[in-house]
Amino acid sequence: MKTMLILTDFSENAFRATEYAAQLVDPLQISRIVLYHAYQSTIIGTDLPVANTANDQQIYLESMENLGLQQDRLSALTKNVRIDLMAEDVSLPVHISTLCKSEEIDIVVMGVSGRSGLEKLLLGSTTSMMIQESTVPVLIVPNSTLIGKPINSVVFTTDLKDHASIPAHQLYEFLDAFPGAALQVINVDKAAGESYTVETKESIATLHNIFDKYNATFDYINKDNTVEGILSYANSHHASIIIVVPKKLGVVASFFHNSISKKLAYDSNIPLLSLPAVKA
């Protein structure tokens, strides 16, 4: 049984992420969904803080009632899927690994949304914390994501370093769920296309072996701004989803710690799947 965890703050933007998640239930063979609300956390589905003005029991009851309403909406979009409801008084980023382990979660889905200055300030640090703390894939759904559009193009990004950190099983499991999707593997670097070192050439050969059975297209793009290059490539190739494997000091740090990351979350309609790196 595969289990999907959907984080929600009951906003329409969070439900958009839920709608997107619902269309992945069959391809990913999900048989159980946990609708989850951390009612005192600063991360509740869409990176928004929540003010607590009532007592804990009242908040819990209201949270469960709202989860029930969202369950009704989700049930209309899925079939033969068990939907469980959970509301907890926790700080979600630090609790996410424990939650995923106890509930045997296979993938986490969360939305990002908002245009206010405070929301933009919070975006990046909170989302980054989620993907750093999670031990399972995290699917981040921008608020402008088109619902109902099939996944027919996947872009996987790489910095041509430490391919041993790629969680091959989780990556293959996702790619196998969408056998008709075109796969583009890209490296964006200001030195791309120049004379590669022997080490880099060996890394490229390893990369080709990793994706050998998927008939992938490999592109090495010369651009000063790596993240901007990824987004430009993904948009020009009409990517349905971008897959990354976060590293503390790698390209994903740029995704979530500069203005380009805000462009991805607020202006792009391309969901981002973050796979947890294999620890050495």
TrEMBL record:
InterPro entries registered for this protein in UniProt: Rossmann-like_a/b/a_fold, Universal_stress_UspA, UspA
Question: In terms of domain of life, where is this protein from?
Answer: Bacteria
Give every UspA domain span: 1-142
The name this protein goes by in its record: Nucleotide-binding universal stress protein, UspA family
The similarity annotation says:
Belongs to the universal stress protein A family.
Its lineage opens with: Bacteria, Pseudomonadati, Bacteroidota, Chitinophagia, Chitinophagales
